[in-house]
């Protein structure tokens, strides 16, 4: 009985060994054959084993082997039956094709590898745009990220990946993608402004300032960027830094009207009206057709006049009878000091409704009937 039992055990062991899976030695040829039949698991086993069991390095030195490996892993990454993209497979495919290009440069497999990478990039780009158009922003972000894996220099993947992330409400991912766009040579001004907007929205003023400063370096003559940087410095109670920065820029570029305009802006923020007006006038001296600086001079006088005029308007009757006329005269003097500059601004932009309305208000306060009628007609014609 014991012999029978021992025989049964022995038979079971022999049977188990007979059915045990033999280790895959690996073969590039077999891997290619399985790939052609789209039997991807078997193809992967063969190619992985071929590279692993390569004591003499023949496989690792063979461009075709790397090319087939890239094809296999590329097919796995693009498998539409899978629940999700195998990102590791995608990275392996890209690394394999890149290795072929390094080994062969302009030869056959290198050219084919380049085409495979382009096809792979197109596959995920199309998925990303399809997801975006269907408002699947999460899918769009993921697929734009895959495009970046395939081609890290594709600035459009970073740009539209950032847009998709914004739509998704993921500010962190959006900023990272936009920064990738800029770091890889993207040059759209809107991207700089969008990063600043996001950081300001999240009250990351230091980061917003850092980005605004870099943007100004990229676009040194852009008025809006300079003012954006200055407004952030003011927000951070670093107006002294702003003034120092602009004055240093003026030393390096003394004939830049925009810089004098911005110096005036800084002085105006501190209510240093005379200094602000002098700076704006310097900007106009350099560039007589500078609308912004011309308007700013008028606005500087106007902004001083308004609280003085309101002081008279808010007086009780007794106080007004005593000194109302004197206060109004002081306000009118300031209003009228700005009129020539508003009128000059109007010659530069004849249909500027905002300037027309400012002039109308001043002429009404100063009882200049003919001027009131003239401006009223002009405004009426613009509104038809």
TrEMBL record:
Ranges for the TPR repeats: 257-290
PROSITE patterns per the UniProt record, alphabetical: TPR, TPR_REGION
Pfam name, any one: TPR_1
Matching InterPro entries: TPR-like_helical_dom_sf, TPR_rpt, Ycf3/AcsC/BcsC/TPR_MFPF
Signal peptide: 1-20
UniProt superkingdom: Bacteria
Keywords linked to the UniProt accession: Repeat, Signal, TPR repeat
PANTHER family: CELLULOSE SYNTHASE OPERON PROTEIN C, TPR REPEAT-CONTAINING PROTEIN MJ0798
Name the UniProt record assigns to this protein: Tetratricopeptide (TPR) repeat protein
